[in-house]
C-alpha cells in the first residue's frame, strides 16, 4: 500500500469510529476528509482564517455590461477600508481577518496605508477590441498572487473580489475554458434587466469571436481581470502552502478554474463555499467537480459566501480533533 492509501484508510477509519451512525454527518465528513488531506494530518488544526479581497477594474465596462458605474469599484474599496461592507460585517461575525488588495483599480493609486498595493495597471484593456492584458501583466499578477497566498500562518484562506464588469470577464474565461455556450453562462451580474442582459450577451458573443481556441494562460490574457489573475495565483500559492482555500462566488470560481488549469495540483485544496445566483456559476462548479457548501441565493462577491462557509470548515475539522470515538465514550457500535 502507498502512503496515501494508508493515510486515506486511517482517515476513513477515524471518521467511521466517531460516535455517530456511519456517514451520518454527510458532507461534513467529506469536508473533514478533504481538510485532513490538505493538511496531511488526521488532527488538522483549523482555527484561523484570513479573507483577501482583490479589487480591479475592467475595460469592458465601457461596453455597458454592468448595472453599476465603474467608479463603484473604487468607492467599495474605500467602504471595505472603512469597515462598512457586508464582507467586513460577516468577517467580524465569524472571526475572520480581512485584507484588501488593489490589483488594478482605475485612476491614481490610493493613498491608504491599510490597503495592499499590488497594482498591475489602472484597469484592463477593453477585451471587445484587444487582449485584456499582456503576458507580462498576467505573469506579474499570478506571481504577486502566489506570494500573497503563501503569506502568514493562517490555517485557511478565503478569496473574494470586487470589480465592476468582472462577471463579463469570468463568463468569457468559463466559455473559452469549458466550451459551454454563452447563452448558458451569461447572467445579470449586479442586476441587469432583460434588455441589459441581452445587450451584455451580444457584447460577449462579439468579444468571444475575436479569438479562437486558447490555452488557460492565453484565455487569462485575452479576457481576464487583474483581480482574477491575482486571485488565481493566490489560490495556487495557498494550496502549495497546505492551506485550505475557500473560494467565494462566480468570479472567484472562474479564477479557481484558471488556477487549476495552469496547476492541477491546487484543486485538492479548494473548497467551494457557495453556489451563487449568477447564471453560469453552477456550470463552472460542475466542470470542476465542485460541490458548494451553501446555496443562499447570494450574488454579491467580496468573499461573503466564503465567510459564511468558514464555520462549517471549522466544525468539520473539530469533528476529527474533538469528537469522541465509540471506544472513548463507551458507546456501543452498530449491532
Ligand atoms: O460572486 C458572485 O457570484 C457575484 C455575482 C454577481 C456579481 N458579483 C459582484 O458584482 C460585481 C460584478 O458584477 P457586474 O454586473 O458589474 O459584472 C463584482 O464586484 C462582483 O463582486 C459577484
Ligand atoms: C454596491 C456594490 C457592492 C459590491 N460588492 C461586490 N460587488 C459589488 C457591486 C456593487 C454595485
TrEMBL record:
InterPro entries per UniProt: Nict_dMeBzImd_PRibTrfase, Nict_dMeBzImd_PRibTrfase_bact, Nict_dMeBzImd_PRibTrfase_N, Nict_dMeBzImd_PRibTrfase_sf
Reactions listed under catalytic activity: 5,6-dimethylbenzimidazole + nicotinate beta-D-ribonucleotide = alpha-ribazole 5'-phosphate + nicotinate + H(+)
CDD domains hit by this protein: DMB-PRT_CobT
A Pfam family: DBI_PRT
Active site residues per record: 302 (proton acceptor)
An example Gene Ontology biological process: cobalamin biosynthetic process
SUPFAM superfamilies linked to this entry: Nicotinate mononucleotide:5,6-dimethylbenzimidazole phosphoribosyltransferase (CobT) (SSF52733)
GO molecular function: nicotinate-nucleotide-dimethylbenzimidazole phosphoribosyltransferase activity
Pathway: Nucleoside biosynthesis; alpha-ribazole biosynthesis; alpha-ribazole from 5,6-dimethylbenzimidazole: step 1/2
Key words, A-Z: Cobalamin biosynthesis, Glycosyltransferase, Transferase
Enzyme Commission code(s) on record: 2.4.2.21
Family named by the database record: Belongs to the CobT family.
Known function: Catalyzes the synthesis of alpha-ribazole-5'-phosphate from nicotinate mononucleotide (NAMN) and 5,6-dimethylbenzimidazole (DMB).
Stored PANTHER family: NICOTINATE-NUCLEOTIDE--DIMETHYLBENZIMIDAZOLE PHOSPHORIBOSYLTRANSFERASE
Name of the featured protein: Nicotinate-nucleotide--dimethylbenzimidazole phosphoribosyltransferase
Gene source species: Boseongicola aestuarii
Amino acid at each position: 500500500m502507498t502512503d496515501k492509501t494508508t493515510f486515506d484508510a486511517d482517515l476513513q477509519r477515524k471518521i467511521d469510529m466517531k460516535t455517530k451512525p456511519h456517514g451520518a454527518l454527510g458532507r461534513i465528513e467529506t469536508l473533514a476528509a478533504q481538510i485532513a488531506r490538505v493538511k496531511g494530518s488526521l488532527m488538522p488544526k483549523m482555527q484561523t482564517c484570513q479573507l483577501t479581497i482583490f479589487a480591479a477594474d475592467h475595460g469592458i465596462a465601457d461596453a455597458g455590461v454592468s448595472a453599476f458605474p465603474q467608479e463603484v469599484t473604487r468607492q467599495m474599496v474605500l467602504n471595505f477600508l472603512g469597515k462598512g461592507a457586508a464582507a467586513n460585517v460577516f468577517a467580524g461575525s465569524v472571526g475572520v481577518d480581512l485584507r484588501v488588495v488593489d490589483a488594478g483599480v482605475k485612476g491614481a493609486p490610493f493613498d491608504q496605508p491599510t490597503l495592499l498595493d499590488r497594482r498591475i495597471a489602472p484597469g484592463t484593456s477593453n477585451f471587445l477590441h484587444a487582449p485584456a492584458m499582456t503576458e507580462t501583466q498576467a505573469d506579474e499578477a499570478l506571481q504577486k498572487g502566489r506570494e500573497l497566498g503563501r503569506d502568514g500562518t493562517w490555517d485557511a484562506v478565503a478569496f473574494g473580489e470586487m470589480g465592476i464588469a468582472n462577471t463579463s470577464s469570468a463568463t468569457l474565461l468559463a466559455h473559452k475554458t469549458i466550451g459551454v455556450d454563452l447563452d448558458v453562462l451569461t447572467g445579470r451580474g449586479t442586476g441587469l434587466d432583460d434588455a441589459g442582459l441581452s445587450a451584455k450577451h451580444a457584447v460577449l458573443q462579439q468579444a468571444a469571436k475575436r479569438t479562437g481556441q486558447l490555452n488557460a494562460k492565453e484565455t487569462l490574457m485575452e479576457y481576464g481581470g487583474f483581480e482574477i489573475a491575482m486571485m488565481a495565483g493566490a489560490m495556487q500559492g495557498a494550496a502549495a502552502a497546505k492551506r485550505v482555500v475557500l473560494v467565494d462566488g462566480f468570479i472567484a470560481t472562474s479564477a479557481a478554474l484558471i488556477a487549476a488549469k495552469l496547476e492541477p495540483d491546487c484543486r485538492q485544496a479548494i473548497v467551494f463555499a457557495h453556489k451563487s445566483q449568477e447564471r453560469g456559476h453552477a456550470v463552472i462548479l460542475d466542470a470542476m467537480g465542485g460541490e458548494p457548501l451553501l446555496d443562499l441565493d447570494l450574488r454579491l462577491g467580496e468573499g461573503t459566501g466564503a465567510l459564511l462557509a468558514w464555520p462549517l470548515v471549522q466544525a468539520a475539522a473539530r469533528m476529527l480533533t474533538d469528537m469522541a470515538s465509540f471506544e472513548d465514550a463507551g458507546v456501543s457500535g452498530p449491532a
